[in-house]
Amino acid sequence: MASAGDALALPDLAAIRAAQRRITALVHRTPVLTSASVDADVGASLHFKGEHLQKIGAFKARGACNAVFSLDDAEAARGVVTHSSGNHGAALAYAAARRGIPAWVVMPENAPAVKQANVRRFGAQVRLCAPTVAARESACAEVARECGATLIHPFDDPRVIAGQGTAALELVEDLPELDAVIAPCGGGGLLSGTAIAVRAVAPRMQVFGAEPANADDAARSFASGRVETLAPTTTIADGLRTTLSPRTLAALRAGVEGIVTCSEDAIVAAMRMLFERMKQVVEPSGAVPLACLLEHRARFAGLRIGVVLSGGNVGLDRLCWQHA
């Protein structure tokens, strides 16, 4: 496994397969869902990888479990810390609980209540901070100094990326005839792992990233070749309000065909479509790939596409289409 200390180190297929073996007993092998009605609207054959049905309600359980169970006993005993808007924090809390070690999660004070509750439910200590990257990193560093905890970054860690890549590995194992795979992109951990896994086992398949037009830093970074900053944004896809790292940008530039964007209205429409037609509760970030397919029908017409539904942690008391 590549060292987390090397800023550009990435896992290879062997590391993703090792992660798959390491976490098999800790996570679900999620189902692949289909809908003839959705296919007809999009004009393509869609195969939804149901990571919203994963432990803690998101794919993040994969990367967190791989990272936590990769630690040696001495490191693990001191605990782990991370910063997260929600899903990675809950995943780290879950993984730490399974290993029997302490966990601290730094969360922005505007993180959705459902995600804060999810983190606390698994026994982690939550520290709230200002909703900026600098505030998150400062609070994590303070916990590390105080407690000796190991930082498990939400996406800028080869162990986390390897774990996230296991979702795509399962998808391609189940459906080797796919033409393409599309996954959401925030910090790029999931998309990096997806690209590495898919390119290694099925090089003819294309890999696409999906993100909101209101938070299009990954698309801009992919085009420019350098990490572009993300200005304050109003997207409902709160899990994707994250900037790439040099590590994840390198993975995307090496293995992703392109990154497509979508409107806020399309995200709402995609969530509603998944709920009404497939009876699946998917959070805004998880619905972004379908939203992109809905708005770019011509580009994907007739293809067999694997679509990663990355998470389902949405507060049902505030469904986003209630006032749409």
Highlighted features:
14 helices, alpha/beta, six-stranded mixed sheet, four-stranded parallel sheet, 324 residues, Rossmann fold, globular, 2 domains
Structure description:
This protein folds into two domains: 205 residues, 3-Layer(aba) Sandwich (Rossmann fold); 91 residues, 3-Layer(aba) Sandwich (Rossmann fold), CATH 3.40.50. 46% of the residues lie in helices and 15% in strands. The protein has 14 helices and ten strands. The longest helix is centred in the middle third of the chain and has 17 residues. The radius of gyration is 18 Å and the shape is globular. The N and C termini lie far apart (47 Å). The mean pLDDT is 93.
Strand order of the largest sheet: 1-2-10-7-8-9
| SSE sequence, one letter per element | HEHEHHEHEHEHEHEHEHHEHHHE
Global structural class: alpha/beta
Largest sheet: 6 strands, mixed
Tell me the number of structural domains.
2
Radius of gyration: 18 Å
| CATH fold-level label of the largest domain | Rossmann fold
Q: What's the count of strands?
A: 10
Ends: how far apart? 47 Å
Global mean pLDDT: 93
SSE topology sketch:
Layout: H1 13-23, E1 32-33, H2 36-42, E2 45-50, H3 60-68, H4 73-77, E3 80-83, H5 87-99, E4 103-108, H6 113-121, E5 125-129, H7 133-147, E6 150-151, H8 158-174, E7 180-184, H9 189-201, E8 206-212, H10 217-224, H11 246-255, E9 258-262, H12 264-278, H13 284-295, H14 297-300, E10 304-309
Helix pairs in contact: 1-3, 1-8, 3-5, 3-8, 5-6, 8-9, 9-11, 12-13
